[in-house]
Design brief:
alpha/beta; eight-stranded parallel beta sheet; about 45% helix; globular; binds ligand TUI
Amino acid sequence: MFDTRVCDLLNIKYPIIQGGMAWVATAELAAAVSNAGGLGIIGAGSAPPEFVRNEIKKTRNLTDRSFGVNVYFMSPYVDEVINVILEEKVQVITTGAGNPSKYIPQLKQSGTKVIPVVSSVALARRLEKSGADALIAEGMECGGHIGELTTMAMVPQIVDAVKIPVIAAGGIADARGFVAALALGAEGVQMGTRFVCAKECTANKNFKEAIVKAKDRSTVITGKTTGHPVRVLKNKLTNRFEEMEERCVSIDELDELGSGKLRLAVIEGDVDNGSVMAGQISGLIKDIKPAAEIIKDIIIDAEDLVKRLHNFI
Ligand code: TUI
C-alpha cells in the first residue's frame, strides 16, 4: 500500500519525506527518517560547504539508505554547496527559495535526483521543462518561507499541470493529511514541523516544546512588507516585528531584526526572542516521539482510514 512513483524514484519504502529545515535538519534526523523507510533530508540553510560535507559524511555513518540535501537558494554558498553534493554523489537534492534550473543538467548527469520546492503552477511547469524529477508543492500553511497558495488549492492544480510526480507539503502531520494529499493527486508528502518534534531532531528542547504547546492560531506571518513572508510562532520577536512593520521602518532595519534569529531559537533555545519557524499544523502535534514511530503511525492509521473511506461506497 502507498507504493507510488515517489518510492521508486527515491528508492524508499514509504512516500514520506522530511523537510530540509535550516539548523533543524541535521544528520541525526535525516538518518533516523531514512532508516525508518522515509527520505531524510539534511538542511544546508546558509551553512558553509564544509559543514554540509561533514553532515553528509555523518549521515552516511548512520544509514545505508538514500537521503537528500536541501539547498536554500538565498544562501551565500549555493554554488559551493552544489559542488559538495556533486562530489559526494548525494542521491537527492531538494531546493527552496529560488529556481534551480541552471544546476539541473549537471546534477542529473551525476545521478542526483532533483526535486525543487514550488508554490505556483507557473514555476511547476517551468521546472518540469528544465528536467526536475519530481516537485514538492508547498502550501502556505507550512513554516518558514511561504508562498501565497494553500496546499488544498494548489496541489491538484499542479498535479493537473505536470506529468512528473508531485509531493504535497504544508499542513500535513498525520495520516489524515497524508491520505488527503494522496486524494489531491500527490504521490507523497513532505513534513517539516512534525519531524521537528522527532526524538532524534537535535533542535533545542524549548523549540520542540513551543510547537507541542502551540494551538491552531499560534502562528503569524512576518516579513510581508519585506517581500519575504515567513510563518513563525507568535512571540516577543514577532510582536516587535509587527510594531516595526506598522511604523513602516526600512527593509534594512527589519532584515537586521531578523538576522541570526532562527539559530537563536533552534540552537540556543530562546523561543521568546528567536524565530520559531513552524507550520499551522503545530496545534495538532502533541508529542515528541521517534521518527520511526511518526512514520509507522501514519502508515498504520492511513491503511485504516482508507478502509473506512472505502465503506462510503
Ligand atoms: O525554502 C523554503 N522555506 C524556508 S527556507 C528557510 S531558511 C531561512 N533562514 C533564515 C531566514 C529566513 C529563512 C526557511 N523556510 N520553502 C521552499 C519554498 N521555496 N517555497 C517557495 C519557494 C520558492 C520561492 C521562490 C521557490 C522558488 C522561488 O523563486 C522562483 C524564481 O523563479 O526565482
